[in-house]
What does this fold into?
Amino acid sequence: MQVNVRHKGSITILDIEGKIIGAEALALKAIIDQQIQTVSNEAEQDEKLNLILNLERVQMMDSSGLGVLVAAYTTIRRNDGRVVLLNLGGNIRSLIVMAKLMTIFDCYNTEAEAIGHFL
Amino acid sequence: MGERTEQAITLSLPSSMQHVYLLTAVVTEILKETNFDEDTQERINLAAIEAGTNAIRNGNRENPGEQITFQLIFTENELTVNTLEESEALKHKETETAQVIMLSLPSSMQHVYLLDVVVTEILKETDFTEETQEQINLAAIEAGTNAIKHGNKEDPRKRATIQFILDEDKLTIVTEDEGDGFTRQEVADPLDPENLLKSSGRGLFLMEACMDSVTYEANGTIIKMVKYKVELEAQ
It folds into this structure.
């Protein structure tokens, strides 16, 4: 799995590629936690993390991966930030539907729409 | 700590040339964890294929009814491929014609990708649809993760063993761990609204959703999952 971190204004975008399974899920969690930490260290302003997880190039995700998405959602929400999912492939969408998590995550098909969520 | 970082992976295959590609796939992945440069990795892989081919051709004389077992022991800068004479007891095999592929791993989450590589390669050779292959792949990873993480508590001295039993009409996946076991009924329902925001606890649910049957034996330390090649007719 590879993760590219981009910033657009106050929005952080993670472009994730590969399979989010096993130890790779833990690696993704570490990257998300680092982003949460970076924002909370910028203490002079009341910064909060606005995060887009771009899953377009994710071929597969297991329950560990799902757990990382849920943990990101709960931690970021607790800090008044928001997280949205972008470009869910068919199998990732079915997984999220199966786990009844569609009602929790805001999902978008284009980056412009996902960015619009935070405006 | 002074501990050696030596890891041992065991792969058991039907003794037929048809299955050497599985050894190649596993060796390729293991080599990525070492410090060998790319050229050396390629040469080691070629040598491993030769060793596998030789063991099958000269040792068991290409008899798919016999198993051949490879033990791959590696550190950051060393890989040893042993061919084991004795075969693991294939106690889950039900028919003579079934083909069994077994992978045995030290219990580290780092090795889940090896299970993914093996199951992906096995499924490519089957006639399951792409969608069904994805479901089986997910179930296998969940079962392996369950054995490594919840069964063996990621203790690298304990082994997680995964058997793939290919029959004409079905694929059976049997995982075994060395943990204390669990009772299925006591595991919380991840779809219960109060559990939806929990970051774990979905593995068994996904296995059951993806496979035709999942049974728990030996206090949950053995999990047997079956996918039939033809969808079961609704009763």
Summary: The two ends of chain A are 30 Å apart (CA to CA).
